[in-house]
Write a structure and sequence with these properties.
single chain; 405 residues; 8-stranded mixed β-barrel; 5-stranded mixed β-sheet; binds ligand C2E; binds calcium ion
Length: 405
């Protein structure tokens, strides 16, 4: 049966509170097998494989999920399921008289102990299979209770995030950026904060990857953009012309309407484009390099007066190609380098070099994670343009920024 029918059966079993084990099996290296043999062989292989599944699992419910993935519902125990690998070895599939080097990996999840919905059973299975593949494949195993808990928490975060976005439960904190020439705050970086009434504080390092995967990053991005632009206008009206710097994920720029969205926010809030900065990571830069439409959107925004800044410089991919292609006006030296600045001569040379490198490209350079006076002095000495870090201020709310200004 297909995935759709399987989902119906699983839902019926869940509704009637029947316990079962969800087994997910994936044929390893299926695509290289396919290339080695012909199309016709591919269907023989799949037929022979399903025959073995039927022989071994007898009258369990079975479904084909993708071209080379299968799912089985069974009341049988883990040791029996794992025995399928030995069974396959003892009953090889022959093609033109040659035994195929066929291996599978699989995941076992239990209902209701491990996961409670069809989608979560599938997700847990994928998690197991991905782990198996990175360990070389050819095993059938289950996840630890801790892994299942982590998955469930993730699912909860996804669910609560939808509510948070709907009720505008996310908050924005701002961290000042100090101009090292004028010694004045020239801008602030907007950082997302989320405290959920049930889940507690979800740090951005957890939140952002989940949001990227589920696509909710676009909503978070627009929310942050709106808040930050609104705030820039409030400060400007009070006589403080400082820019706001917003973090952006490459996924947001895959939206062909990104230019329209950003222009829309600027219009709506009355924020001048020159007060908006967008921070992108090296990962973003690397992916943008291959996608002309992203570079085009960036250039359009740059023409409007929006500035692009490269975040976490030096930690991602040592590629300078994107420096030539993307309209970047500043980079931020990652806090990892600044941490050892005061006592490692090599780091001092490296950072001094990075700053000179940036200036030679007519770029501004900012140092992140500045925690001491000593670090700040050295950076000033190296002609670094700006600094950000706990020594200047932690991320704080808009009112506290106003007081600081
Ligand atoms: P990031 O863009 O590199 O942001 C700087 C991070 O360093 C912030 O962590 C900030 O609180 C922290 N930090 C600032 N000064 C210091 C310091 O002196 N010492 C140390 N040890 N840390 C310092 P935070 O707020 O937890 O954010 C983590 C990451 O999450 C950010 O790294 C950024 O990549 C991402 N992020 C945060 N907000 C957003 C957002 O609205 N959208 C997107 N796409 N990503 C965001
Ligand atoms: Ca940033
Ligand atoms: Ca950074």
């Amino acid at each position: 049966m297909n995935r759709y029918r399987l989902e119906q059966i699983v839902n019926e079993m869940i509704d009637t509170k029947q316990h079962f084990t969800f087994v997910y099996l994936s044929i390893d290296k299926f695509y290289s097998l396919k290339e080695l043999y012909s199309e016709q062989m591919e269907s023989i292989l799949l037929q022979e494989f399903t025959n073995r599944l039927k022989m071994y699992f007898q009258d369990s419910v079975m479904a084909r999920i993708t071209i080379n993935d299968f799912a089985i519902l069974t009341p049988l125990g883990e040791w029996f399921i794992q025995g399928f690998l030995a069974y396959l070895e003892q009953h090889p599939i022959y093609i033109e008289g040659i035994a195929l080097p066929l291996t599978v990996c699989g995941g076992i999840s239990k209902y209701p102990e491990d996961q409670q919905t069809f989608n979560h059973l599938l997700k847990a299975s994928h998690e197991i299979i991905n782990k198996m593949h990175s360990d070389g494949g050819s095993t059938i195993s289950s996840l630890s209770t801790a892994d299942h808990k982590a998955l469930s928490r993730r699912a909860m975060i996804e669910k609560r995030l939808l509510i948070a976005l709907d009720q505008k439960d996310l908050k924005v904190l701002y961290q000042p950026q100090l101009n090292l020439k004028t010694k004045k705050i020239e801008g602030v970086e907007a950082l997302v904060r989320w405290e959920d009434s049930e889940l507690g504080i979800i740090p951005p390092d957890v939140l952002i990857p989940i949001a990227e995967e589920t696509g909710l990053i676009n909503e978070i991005g627009t929310f942050m953009l709106e808040k930050a632009c609104e705030q820039a206008v409030i400060w400007k009206k009070k006589g403080h012309t400082i820019f706001v710097s917003v973090n952006s994920s490459v996924r947001e720029f895959r939206d062909k309407n990104m230019v329209k969205i950003i222009r829309g926010v600027l219009d709506k809030t009355g924020c001048p484009a020159s007060l908006l900065q967008i921070e992108i990571t090296e990962k973003f830069a690397l992916e943008a390099e291959a996608e002309g439409s992203i570079i085009k959107q960036m250039k359009q925004l740059q023409t409007d007066g929006v500035r692009f800044v490269l975040d976490d410089f030096g930690t991602g991919y040592a590629s300078f190609r994107y420096m030539q292609l993307l309209p970047l006006e500043e980079f931020k030296i990652d806090k990892m380098f600044i941490a050892t600045l005061a006592y490692q001569q090599k780091t001092q040379k490296l950072i001094h070099g990075m700053i000179q490198f940036g200036h030679s490209l007519n770029m501004r350079v900012l140092a992140e994670g500045v925690e001491t006076e000593e670090q700040l002095d050295l950076l000033t000495q190296y002609n670094c343009n700006a600094a950000q870090g706990y020594h200047i201020s932690r991320p704080i709310d808009a009112n506290e920024i106003s007081k600081l200004l």
